[in-house]
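Ticket 4471: requesting a sanity check on a complex prediction with histidyl-adenosine monophosphate. Repro inputs:
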Amino acid sequence: MLQKPRGTRDFLPDEMERRRLIERRMREAARRWGYREVCTPDFENLELFTMKSGEGIIGEMYVFEDKGGRQLTLRPEVTAAVLRMYVNEGKVLPKPIRWCYFADCFRYERPQKGRYRQFWQFGVELIGADTPSADAEVIMLADDTLRSTGVTFDLHVGHLAPMKHLLADLAPGDQRAIMAYLDKHDPKGLEAALVEKNLTHLAEPLAALGECRTVSEVFEIAGDVPERARIEETFALLDAQEIDYRPDFGIARGLDYYTGMVFEGFAKNLGAENQIVGGGAYRLAHLFGGDDVASCGFAIGFDRVMVSIGEFELAHGPVVGVVFTPDARARALEVARAFREAGIRAEADLMGRGMGAQLAHAAKTADFAAVLGKREVEAGTVTLKDLHSGEQQERSLEEAIAEVARHGAC
Ligand code: HAM
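Returned structure tokens:
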């Protein structure tokens, strides 16, 4: 039996309905904040991501050459693509630009629970606002969007300036390497790298940064940084709006383009792969031929949110099985159409089954049977059977539709 590729999943209808419901809630949250949906291609020129996204992601990409010899890749994330689109199409738009997306991404990673090779991100990018209010808006929107899904999570908010200040004397390559260990929460790798690079004096302050619970402690460890006032203002805005978060200046982020505020969220009930959102302030547009515009955004790992929420019952509208004798088929199709026009899901037999077999099938798949035989066709009626209670009554088509509609939103 042929299997799907490693790290991918199939979704059956119940799961798809649950996914669509949660997806709708996320889109709705973003809409309320003024973020409008955009869409970029599933694949991009490779260089879009090699320019700045970071070593990790480059090693994990699905790279291929097309028939014209172009180096392409399936997108491993959406931010770079959205900023490319901004440079191509959006430079003249009034700022700030508020965009959101729901898109599948591809990373060649070792699959495990919550880590897939094809996964979906719901994200936003706020382009052209370089203020504490912009940073705070993006964090608050991430919080609002995640809350709307029902997932429970811890939100950590930090800023790269104190960590970069501690690492200021390092060569850029070494700085990136150290930050990658911090991002992966790999203390052994970090220790080995610090020993190898003769930087063991940094072990303690780096560890302490992640432990700080107040902003002032951070500056005691890392020294005063020019960004201090901005960091304090962002945090004050979050506090004033009673956002439930924890300062965390140990956040390094895996992607290389971040420049300032960074944040991550962790689902409370997931294992190792518990990071459900990541984001922050960054600059990318200038690399793609645009202006050096400040941007800020996040992406939620939609699949991890779904794993965290778990299975739940879906309230679906009533389903009608239209059951008919062979000579009532034309009328049955009219009746099915009338139910559908009223927004009700109606399914008619396609298998040439007898009435008994049609009713047995409806009992498994529907809430009501609309039965049509010779008598109903002549009288212009429908015998409506409630398949849960077993009650049945002959009614006009309008009454039958009204009765079914009474049983819930369609
Ligand atoms: P990221 O942290 O690489 O950030 O990914 C965002 C989220 O995608 C992660 O927190 C995680 O929930 C989910 N995710 C990542 N890899 C996988 C995987 N293999 N399987 C399942 N879920 C995964 C970004 O992608 C940035 N573009 C976020 C951003 C937007 N920054 C600014 N704007």
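Notes from triage: Residues 13-32 form the longest helix (20 residues). Leaving this open until the requester confirms.
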